[in-house]
Design brief:
The chain is mostly helical and 179 residues long. The protein has a single domain, classed as Arp2/3 complex 21 kDa subunit ARPC3, CATH 1.10.1760. Helices cover 77% and strands 0% of the residues. The longest helix has 34 residues. The mean pLDDT is 85.
Length: 179
């Protein structure tokens, strides 16, 4: 993989930030497909993250997107979702996949990390923001909601992996010019 020029890296970072903000804004105002827009916001962080020397630009994109979303969106639960779950997932995936060579162990570790971040998000939403994040979920018993969330995390990981693989193999070189 060739290294990107500084101008290309800056452009990719700016576009990634803009797309992330756009998707999170759409998630906060459009009633249908909210989690889909959050998923798209988490996918765009992969674009600078998986480049050679792209960790710092990806971190800056993540922080810039989070800051803009914080000031742009009135419902801070969407900001919290991006900050703790969707925005971080690309970093978690890259780090865990590089740390563990066994794909099953890496998969289990990612699900455990996402469960911990979801629990932290619920605690922060209720204690710090004073909002009931559980009110966004359907009113089902907890013994049904936890397995449903586990299925969601598993599906999220599988779809995320397929889409980033397709992007890396078929679109990355078309979208991002190389020196």
């Amino acid at each position: 993989m060739k290294k990107l020029s500084p101008a290309t890296r800056l452009t990719v970072s700016a576009m990634t930030t803009a797309l992330g903000v756009l998707f999170m804004f759409a998630a906060s105002v459009i009633p249908a497909g909210r989690l889909g827009f959050c998923f798209l916001a988490s996918l765009v962080i992969w674009i600078p993250l998986n480049e050679r020397g792209g960790l710092l630009p990806a971190i800056l994109c993540y922080l810039a997107t989070a800051a803009i979303v914080f000031f742009l969106i009135s419902n801070k639960l969407w900001f919290g979702l991006y900050l703790l779950l969707f925005g971080l997932y690309g970093f978690i995936k890259l780090g865990v996949d590089r740390l563990f060579s066994d794909r099953f162990i890496a998969f289990v570790v990612k699900v455990i990390i996402m469960n911990g971040l979801a629990a932290l998000g619920l605690i922060i939403a209720s204690k710090v923001l004073g909002q009931n994040a559980l009110s966004m979920l359907p009113e089902y018993p907890l013994y049904l909601m936890i397995p449903a969330l586990e299925v969601f995390f598993i599906a999220y990981e599988l779809v995320y992996s397929v889409l980033i693989k397709l992007f890396d193999e078929h679109l990355r070189d078309v979208i991002i010019p190389r020196r």
